[in-house]
Design brief:
The complex is a heterodimer of chains A (114) and B (116). Chain A has no helices and 11 strands. Chain A is globular and about 40 Å long. Chain A has strands at 4-7, 10-13, 19-25, 31-37, 43-51, 54-57, 64-66, 76-78, 87-94, 104-105, 109-113. Chain B has no helices and 12 strands. In chain B, the strands form 3 sheets. In chain B, strands 2, 5, 6, 10, 11 and 12 form a 6-stranded mixed β-sheet that branches. A 4-stranded antiparallel β-sheet of chain B has the order 3-9-8-7, with no helix packed on it. In chain B, strand 5 and strand 6 form a beta hairpin. The relative contact order of chain B is 0.33. The chains are: A mainly beta (114), B mainly beta (116). Chain A binds chain B through residues 4, 6, 31, 33, 41-43, 45, 50, 88, 90, 92, 96, 98-108, 110, and chain B through 32, 34, 36, 41-46, 49, 51-52, 90, 92, 94, 96, 102, 104, 106-109.
Chain lengths: 114, 116
Amino acid sequence: DGGITQSPKYLFRKEGQNVTLSCEQNLNHDAMYWYRQDPGQGLRLIYYSQIVNDFQKGDIAEGYSVSREKKESFPLTVTSAQKNPTAFYLCASRSLSPNTGELFFGEGSRLTVL
Amino acid sequence: AQSVTQLDSHVSVSEGTPVLLRCNYSSSYSPSLFWYVQHPNKGLQLLLKYTSAATLVKGINGFEAEFKKSETSFHLTKPSAHMSDAAEYFCVVSSMIKAAGNKLTFGGGTRVLVKP
């Protein structure tokens, strides 16, 4: 089935460690997005990419990095510079063709810093 | 510029009664509008979308929404709430204009509680 796969679903990290969250889509979508969700704060955009080998910072990019070497893949690295990384992370993708544009979401990855 | 305001952060309804979730938006371009639902520890699922066709949009699970340009609103309704409707709901506006960066804006979410 077509969709977006995020892994791992749960991840624990010690302070000072970098971790990478995986996001893969087989929908042939142009654009991919990473959001962070904290209780009571809705979704905040971390990074997005509209084309391979190009990406832009969102509203809360500090302490995060991404790459887009393949159309299907958009991994997110949470670095040790991110001061409060414990959160629920959501990856999404969408086509940029006219008259479409809805986001398709993965099931999320919950990161806990110990 | 665009923005989305969900007018209620929490809504409580009894099972079998109507549900109304309110969303107002602003956009410099002709927008696309979406409603998503999120159950705990899950991703967001699309309920319905408006993309400049019919102003009354029917979605999954008995939900529908009406686009009212004059009121800049896109309220979500369901005639009869079910226990499984307890979740968080997000209204989203999108401008599919390259010059605007194909920008997406999320509302703050409305948490729905369904009482038996």
